[in-house]
């Protein structure tokens, strides 16, 4: 069995040792660079309805790891077909705020 298959099997069975080893080490996941991790976490926050401070934290982490503002917005667009437009519309102001934009002050 390959490493990823074993890890998936153990996660599926709620293996506490693996969860502690891999999920407890939040800032040191196997195989993901900082940018990819921050973008994945941002997508998760969008999907689950995260708080504004969490959006700010992960957006800052993504930008600090080399992501562009366009890439951050691309995450919103990219997850829309999976989580639905209403969730993306709900998250867009939180992402805008995390990017330092005030949507209320922006005029077309």
What does this protein structure show overall?
The structure is a single chain. With 108 residues, the chain is an all-alpha fold. It has two domains: 1-31, no CATH class; 32-108. Helices cover 69% and strands 0% of the residues. It contains six helices and no strands. Helix 4 (52-64) crosses helix 6 and helix 5 runs antiparallel to helix 6 (85-98). It is elongated and about 55 Å long. The termini are far apart. The model has no long low-confidence stretch (mean pLDDT 87).
Q: Specify the number of helices.
A: 6
Query: What percent of the residues sit in helical stretches (DSSP H or I)?
Result: 55-70%
Shape: elongated
Distance between the termini: 56 Å
Total separate domains: 2
* Biggest sheet character: none
The beta-strand count equals 0
What would the average pLDDT be, to the nearest integer? Answer: 87
Strand coverage percent:
under 5%
Task: Write the element-wise H/E pattern from the N-terminal end onward.
Answer: HHHHHH
- pLDDT below 50 for ≥5 consecutive residues: which ranges? none
Structural class by SSE content: mainly alpha
Please identify the oligomeric state. Answer: single chain
- The Cα radius of gyration reads 16 Å
């Amino acid at each position: 069995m390959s490493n990823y298959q074993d890890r998936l099997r153990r996660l599926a069975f709620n293996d506490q040792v693996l969860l502690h080893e891999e999920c407890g080490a939040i800032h040191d996941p196997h195989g993901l660079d900082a940018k990819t991790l921050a973008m994945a976490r941002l997508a998760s926050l969008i999907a689950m309805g995260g708080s504004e401070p969490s959006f700010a934290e992960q957006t800052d982490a993504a930008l600090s790891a080399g992501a562009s503002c366009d890439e951050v917005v691309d995450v919103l667009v990219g997850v829309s077909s999976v989580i639905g437009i209403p969730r993306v519309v709900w998250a867009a102001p939180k992402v805008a705020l995390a990017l330092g934009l005030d949507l209320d002050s922006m005029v077309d």
